[in-house]
Amino acid sequence: MKVLVVDSDRKLSDSITSVLEQALVQYAPNGDMAITMALKEQFDVIVLDAALAEQDGVNVLQELRRRNVATPVLMLAANDSVRNVVLSLESGANDCVCKPCPLNVLVARMRALTRRSKWDSCADIRYAHSRPERVVSILIAGDYESSRGAMARLIALKLPEVVVHVADSQKNISELCAIHLVDIVITDLKKSPEALQKIIGEIRSVRNNVRFIVTTGSIEKDQPARLSYLEDCSVLRKPVNLDELLLAIRQHIAETDFAPAPSPSPPAA
Predict the structure, then answer these.
(1) Where are the chain's structural domains?
(2) At what angle do helices 145-158 and 242-254 cross, to 10 degrees?
(3) Which of 129, 159, 182, 258 qualifies as a cystine partner to 177, CB 3.0-4.6 A?
């Protein structure tokens, strides 16, 4: 992997280098140098800080796109406001994370971007360029941190083509769905089905095609039937069986338009 890190502080570049020992990580302290380097060399991913010391990182991003630099860009937003994240994405960023971001999460996002970019550069499917690949984004929300973390690691291990996010609580799910362009939400049933329906409505007001996987406890024996009327919602009883969870995720992916389409045949010579 060949990486360009654009940041006023070189510490981030050094940290990425220490984790990605086999990668070639180059550093640019400002936007002008970054643009020059991106035009001269081919990188697999660019990590760009939105808050550069002398320039606005969004302006640098827009200039890269204006000059037809198609390299995937991972933007580092200065804070977690939805406005900053949306601005970065609409300006041409392929992904955006908020600082401070754990290094392992940042590296995982970089790897996900390089996997996505292979689709555009593959000669065998270059005729499908009009439909870029969408990596499915999953958000896990629940009350028990250890359970959320374990579930996220298992999903990431078994389904490396998806990106998994973990919410600290159920209070900010709607905002996180907007920030991370979430496709599937996995959550516990801690409230009544009516309250859950309200939460689903709030989420779909910002991401109208989000699908849900709801886990219920053993004491809630009638809940699956009571939730059956919710559209695009799967219900799994706890303790959750991993195979059943993966099957539910795959079914949601297969039934929606974020599943990559089959490559069309190349035009006849």
Answers:
(1) 2-128, 137-254
(2) 60
(3) 182
pLDDT per residue of the chain (269 residues) written in tens, 0 to 9: 899 999 988 888 888 888 887 789 999 999 999 999 999 998 989 999 988 878 888 999 999 988 988 888 999 987 656 777 778 888 888 888 888 788 888 888 888 888 765 434 333 322 233 334 457 889 888 655 556 777 887 888 788 778 888 876 666 788 888 878 889 999 887 666 677 778 888 888 888 888 999 888 754 445 555 555 567 888 888 788 888 999 999 999 888 665 444 444 444 44
CATH fold label, 2-128: Rossmann fold (3.40.50)
137-254 belongs to CATH 3.90.1140.10 = no
- pTM exceeding the 0.70 threshold for the entire prediction: no
